[in-house]
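Batch manifest, entry 17 of 40.
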Amino acid sequence: MSTTNILAERSPPARTEPLTSRLARLLGGANLIGAVLPLGLLVLWQTATSLRWIQPVFLPSPLATVQAFWTMLTRQNLHVDFTASILIVSQAFVYGAALAVALGIAAGLSRNVERFLGPTFDTIRHIPGIAWLPLIVLWLGIGAPAKVLVIAKSVFFPVFLNTLQGIRDVEKRYIELADVLTLTRWQLVRKVILPAAVPSIMVSLRYSAGVAWALVVVAEGLSGLEGIGYLIFRAQGLLLTDQLVVCMVIIGAVGFTIDRAMLALQRYVLRWKQGFEG
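Output type: structure tokens
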């Protein structure tokens, strides 16, 4: 008998991991906990429509909603409206966030810049973006540029203020240590101030991304002939409740995806920072 056969006979049989354990390990306990409430709401929704607690004209069944989604996707070019909304939000977020970070850093590093921008910005930011929409439509029409400008304005101020405050919240002992190490102004900004301000900036970017997606619905509903917002207002006017629910589900799902993507980016950028995990 060969050595290989002897070792094979003496070695204990490999233990097979149960299927439930493998699924739990792959999905993760936190994900399973997070799925309890949505599944419960789905069951309640199905029960309410099946037992006619709510009339279909007010709340269609989940199956009717899925059928409406398929109809909108195959016959009404839902993907075209969805793409239009995503493009508007992407452009507005990039423009608003980039300008906000640049000006926020400038104002945070210079009191004179803050004094110069402060009175004007503090006045403009208290005027809601939707209040600007009628005037901007007069200037730019009802096309994408008007919506991009309105949404970019709403993205700008949270990011600007958090960038400014993040720089101002840098601990004084870090600045004093930089003086002891005789760092140059550029080295101080690059190695001390900006890294300390990044957590505040990332939180504002995550928040503003959600605001941008939510605001595009209002902007498209009030001015425009395409997009998810336009579909919602059209479904409301025609009493197409199933299509209205489809659009609401899409908005919620995309908003959740955007938030999770920004959270993943935040964790990646701040992977050096340790904090309380809960």
